[in-house]
Structure formats: structure tokens, C-alpha cells
Design brief:
Length: 103
Amino acid sequence: MDSLVKLERTKVLYKLTLMLSVFSSTLIVFFHTLKWFIQDELTLFMTVPLLLIGYVFFYGSLLFSVLYFIFSRYQHSFLLKALPLIVGLLALAIVQIIPYAPH
């Protein structure tokens, strides 16, 4: 019975980590894509704290994904264990490499 509880806890933690990674990655790509539109509509004084909150949330979830990858006991597959980290690193690469400029 105890091993079933640990297995379910591991599955729930994996799903939570993956959902957090996907949500924060989508949020940061959305903020990065619409940064100039947000700045025009909300003024500069609202844009900086909004982007700061988004980036702190993204880097926090990326750190959580790294820690999950290192300390996870999810035994199914190496790729499944690394999937939240891969999603976060892919979003980071998109934000850093692709230039978004206003029209």
C-alpha cells in the first residue's frame, strides 16, 4: 500500500511540474511577443513590474524543473523525466534567439 501511495505521489508531482513548466513557458513567450503592445497600452510604469513578475515566475519554474530532474524518482523514462526541463529550455531559447520588434 505504501508503494502505491509513493507511486501516485510521484505521478502527481510529475504532472504538476509539467503543467507549471508549460504554463510559465507560454506566459513568458506571450509576454515577450507582446512586450511592445503591453508597453503602449499600459505605459512603461506598468510594463516593467508585469514583465518582472512573469520572468521571476518563469525562472522559478525552470529552477523547479531542474530540481525535479535531478532529484526525481520517476522511473519510467529519462525523456519523460526531462520533459518539463526541455519545455522550459525551449521557451528560453525562443525568447533569447527570436527577436520580436514592433511593426
